[in-house]
Amino acid sequence: MPLSKKQKKFLRTKCHALKAVIMMGQKGLTAEVLNELEIALTHHELVKIKLSVDDRDVRKQMIVEICEKSQSEEVQSIGKTLSVYRVNPDQAIIDLPRR
Question: The pTM is what?
Answer without folding.
Answer: 0.91
